[in-house]
Amino acid sequence: MRVFIFVSHGFTTYKFKDFYKAGRLDIALHSIIHAFFVSNGMRKDVEFNLLLYGPPKAPIRIKIVSNLETPWSKKDVGTLIKISLYKFLKKKKTETFKGVYVSKEGLEEVLREYKQKYKIFLLDPNGKEIENVEFSKNQAFVLGDFLGLEKEHYEIAEKFADEKVSLGKTVYFASQCIFLLNYFYDKKFGSEIWDTSYKFKF
User: Fold this and answer.
1) How many CA atoms lie within 13 A of 74 on its CB side?
2) Is the overall model pTM greater than 0.70, yes or no?
3) CB-based contacts of 46: which residues, under 8 Å, 6+ apart?
């Protein structure tokens, strides 16, 4: 299983109209798409933890696990996130859809959970070049949004990380980082994909 732990400044409310203005939640949406979807397919072995640290109820964790029954596609990830926040905050539901779970947890709780079974990599431009990294089958990657990790969150991640990993000197979009991490993971272990082309036939 490959795990992404994405620390976002996204708002912790469903009452917004523009994902861009809601703490740049648009970046989180693009990152989720790159984590799960390929052309005409969806990855079987991904867990994505979206940790929201924006106002007014931070932190909130939205955990998405690969599941064909999750009612989404590349086009409506935003709807999934917004309704999940609504169900959690308004209706107190923690499993908001098949494969989608919402909880009142922050970075330290999430890292402590994964540390038991996963090798944790912290993305850092000064870390080891990814080409020289020894990947493991169960692996978690920690990264931030356009502002990166706040000092407090970086120190927490550093405490739990097995290794710091660099994707090079070029600063990529968060979604591009996830694409590259998937690429290197696929090279090492291959990829397990559900065929979803039947959803898009004309």
Assistant:
1) 16
2) yes
3) 1, 2, 3, 4, 35, 36, 65, 66
